[in-house]
Amino acid sequence: MKHAIRISCSRSNLKTVRDFVAGVLQEHQLSDILQNQIILAVDEIVANLIIHSNQEDESKHLDIRVAVEDQEFRFEAEDDGESFSPSEYRDPDLQEHIRAGKKGGVGIALVNRIMDQVEFTTIGTRNFCRLSKRIG
In which domain, by residue range, is 110 found? Predict the structure, then answer.
């Protein structure tokens, strides 16, 4: 992929990733809504990887790659934390979340609604999350 950064697994690096993705997207004259949706989806995934997969262990890293090719935004994050199993994931009951005033727990559902493709794979000890979105 064309653009890449490596970050330590600290929440303080979420802004770095948002700025990185925004910088790549700015070159492509997207609507503010589309750009913000993509940044939000990436932010949710990276936050989950930092917090849940890597337990905010700053000695661990995420390798993040982004590209825009053929009118498609592509994102890939790679780490060696705990893997996420999409087959075990169930969308939350959003009405119940609202009724109970729950915070959190809706990130993956949000990402699935924003992005065209969301994929989690593990090869050996390395985990990969790939997102894609048509932008043209």
Answer: 3-134
How many domains are contained in the chain?
1
Mean pLDDT is lowest, of 14-18, 47-51, 100-104, for 100-104
Position 67 pLDDT exceeds 90: yes
DSSP structure class, residue 51: I
Output the pTM of the full model.
0.88
61-69 β-sheet, strand order? 3-8, 61-69, 72-79, 126-134, 117-123
Q: Where are the beta strands (DSSP E) in the chain?
A: 3-8, 61-69, 72-79, 117-123, 126-134
Q: 11-21 b/e with 16+ CB inside 10 Å = b?
A: eebbeebeebb
Q: Are 70 and 109 in contact (CB under 8 A)?
A: no
The answer to whether 88 and 103 are in contact (CB under 8 A) is: no
The CATH number of residue 70's host domain is 3.30.565.10
Mean pLDDT value of segment 99-107: 65
User: Considering just the CA atoms, what is the radius of gyration of the chain in Å?
Assistant: 15
